[in-house]
Amino acid sequence: MNRKLWDDPRIAHLAAVLDVPRPAIIGAVWRVWWLRDEYGVEDVIPQATPCALDILVEVPGFTNEMIAVGLLTKTEDGIRVELWD
């Protein structure tokens, strides 16, 4: 889990593309990490979809942008959280 999120260029990219302040993006990332920790099976949040995760983090378009920058991957079983370690 990368704790240096404030300076991560992917976070700045997400904030710019989604027009959301960086602290809100970091909060959404932490929320996804919590969901992975609480419900994940082998780093996959089962049955999660981009739409469902966007609702859970309250940032429209967030999940697809996370996929675009390589922090998440859509799988047949749900959404995989990448770069966890």
Structural commentary:
By secondary structure, the protein is mostly helical. The protein has one domain. It has four helices and three strands. A three-stranded antiparallel beta sheet has the order 1-3-2. Helix 1 packs across helix 2. The longest helix is centred in the middle third of the chain and has 18 residues. The mean pLDDT is 93.
Uncertain residue ranges: none
Instruction: Please report the distance between the alpha carbons of the first and last residues.
Output: 5 Å
Number of helices: 4
Q: On the 0-100 scale, what is the average pLDDT?
A: 93
Helix content: 40-55%
Using the alpha-carbon principal axes, give the shape.
Answer: globular
Query: SSE order, as H and E?
Result: HHEHHEE
Rg, alpha carbons = 12 Å
Features:
about 80 residues; mainly alpha; 3-stranded antiparallel beta sheet; single chain; globular; about 50% helix
What is the gist of this entry?
The chain has 85 residues and is mainly alpha-helical.
Task: Please specify the SSE layout and strand pairing.
Layout: H1 9-18, H2 22-39, E1 44-46, H3 50-57, H4 62-68, E2 72-74, E3 78-81
Antiparallel strand pairs: 1-3, 2-3
